[in-house]
Amino acid sequence: MEYNVNPVLTRNGEERLIEWHNASITDSQGNIVEVLASGIDVTERKRAQEALACSEAIYRKTIENAQGVPYQLNFADNKYAFMGTGIEELVGIKPDDLTLDKLKAFSEGLVIHDLCGYETEQAYCEAFETGKLDRFKADIRFHTPKGEVKWYSDCSLLVRDDKTGEVTGCIGILQDITERKRAEKLLQKAKEEAELANKAKSQFLANMSHEIRTPMNAIIGMSKTLREYNADNLNDKQLEGLEIIYRSGQRLLLLINDILDLSKIESGKMEISLKPFSLDALIATIRSMVKTLCADNDEIEFLVQKSDAVPRTIISDAQKLHEIFTNIISNAVKFTDKGQIILNIDVQQNRLCFKVSDTGIGISKDDIEHIFDEFTQVDSSTTRKYPGTGLGLSICRKMVQLLGGEIKAESELGKGTTIMFYIPLKTAQILPDDHITETLGYESRKSQSAKRRSAKGSDSFTPENSAKILIAEDDKFGRAAIKMMLEHKYHLIFAEDGKEAVEKYFTVSPDVVLMDIMMPVMDGYEAFDEIIKNRSKQTVPIIALTAKAMIDDREELLAYGFTDYISKPINDESLIKIIEQHLAKQKIN
To answer: Residue 186: inside a domain, yes or no?
Structure first.
């Protein structure tokens, strides 16, 4: 039987393909006497075959030019039914020589980013091979036969039998991700180095804070106490000297606080505490601050203009607002020789608008654009008249932004400057005016002096009938400063390290403990642990007294178990207030 395909024209002129099948009939001598032929129209079949061949060619061309190396794997024999030509460049093995077992032999690491609920990589792979998972995705570390280390990603889908639904294999794409892995490694290294550098910076700042605040505690505390306690026994020159020491100490303290604030903001660890407080009381503290700043200059008038639309009580962070005003108004006082500083408070579009205007030296148009930049000063020459670090307004901008507001400046050279900032207006019920005193730890100088004179002039104080305060402080100047602050009011017992503090705690039975943190022999944490472990009386407050003032120090100490926290340099009124609060709680308990 023979057959061939020939084109035939139909009556209407259409060409059709006919497949002819021929059979010969012969006589007894083998001669052909008759031929039988039949024809079948195979036009559609031929067209379908040609279309299929064309489609397959396009598919193969597309696959071969696709990004990555396509493949088809049969699970029955673990052999590749199809493997893209790029596999040799990827793993160094020719497609015809490649099997799954050989590929696994050169692979030494498997990274699966999503295990889909399976506990191990092996369980994940078994789930895919048995049809429990339809997709497989992994990064694979591979050693080529030449010894090169490469990474490739394997992304594949299961193939099932159309009739039975059984798993027969998979199709997928292998992609070279070696460069990506190298970049990720470099990025991870850079990240780790940055984290180490940031940790080192934070540790340095914490240590610097401690080393500066410890002597500052003695300088500020003793100069202030001497000036207020012994004013009647000192001449004007001596009082002036103490005032200079105190103010210089405060200036250094502001500098270190600015640096620490900037570090907190940059690391994203500065927290905002939104609470209701009296705006009028905040204004009172600002008035008192300006009075202190202008103590040597009676040619500056400070005015407050407040709209009737401004509520008495708002919800915001009083401490942050106080810091913002301190920086802005300090600048206004610094750059104003005479004239006015006006604080205007208004409500605009459901926002509180604070505006501080001065009649000072002003700023040029070129310089006004940079006044909120870090470490930037209008005059940075060696002959500049006005001191400063260039951090204050930068910190103000960042704090205002944390409060959900914005800040801007207007100025005219020779006429003055206006700094205005806006924060969201949130009102609250009216609070007592002294609420801000607790929020900011503020009391007027007059009130402080009156309390001191009252305490000093009291005949009822004797060490025997007063509260016993155990103070663990390794710095001798720090001990001297605390002694001057508290000796008129309490019976003081000192310890020079944590070990001595523990011993004295169980021998003198104090009413309150002030515990320094960084001490020799035994630090404050260890001493705290020893006391807690062995004491029977649970109500004695242990207050952390430390020069650490970095990120989350207060939260860390309170979380550790300390009753309260006060940072150095110590404000004597704040310290006494904290002690009295905890003594009062003891009496109630």
So the answer is: no
Number of domains in the chain: 4
The pair of structure tokens assigned to 380 is 């940075």
Q: What is the pLDDT along the chain (589 residues), one digit of tens a residue?
A: 566 788 888 888 888 888 888 888 888 888 888 878 788 888 888 888 887 877 766 666 655 555 678 888 888 888 888 888 788 888 888 878 787 888 888 787 778 888 888 888 888 888 888 889 888 999 988 888 888 888 988 899 999 988 888 889 998 888 888 899 899 999 999 999 888 887 777 677 767 777 777 788 788 888 888 877 777 788 888 888 888 788 777 777 777 777 777 776 766 667 788 889 999 989 988 888 888 788 778 889 999 999 999 999 999 998 889 889 988 998 899 889 899 999 999 999 999 999 999 999 998 888 888 888 876 665 544 334 555 556 788 888 988 999 999 999 999 998 999 999 999 999 887 654 444 444 444 444 444 444 444 544 444 456 656 899 999 999 888 888 888 889 889 999 999 999 999 999 999 999 999 999 988 899 999 999 999 998 876 779 999 987 765 546 777 888 899 999 988 888 888 899 999 999 988 877 6
- Residue 372: domain span: 275-440
What's the farthest any 2 CA atoms get from each other in the chain?
A: 156
Q: Among all chains, which residue has been given the structure tokens 């998972």?
A: 133
Nearest to 367 by CA among 402, 403, 412: 412
Query: Using an 8 Å Cβ cutoff, are 450 and 187 in contact?
Result: no
Examine the domain organization and report whether 379 and 474 are in the same domain.
no
List CB contacts of 64: < 8 A, sequence separation 6 or more. 70, 84, 85, 86
Backbone angles phi, psi at 379, to 5 degrees: -120, 105
> Is the pTM value of this prediction over 0.70?
no
Does 199 reside within a domain?
Answer: no
Tell me, yes or no, whether 192 lies in a domain: no
Whether residues 434 and 561 fall in one domain: no
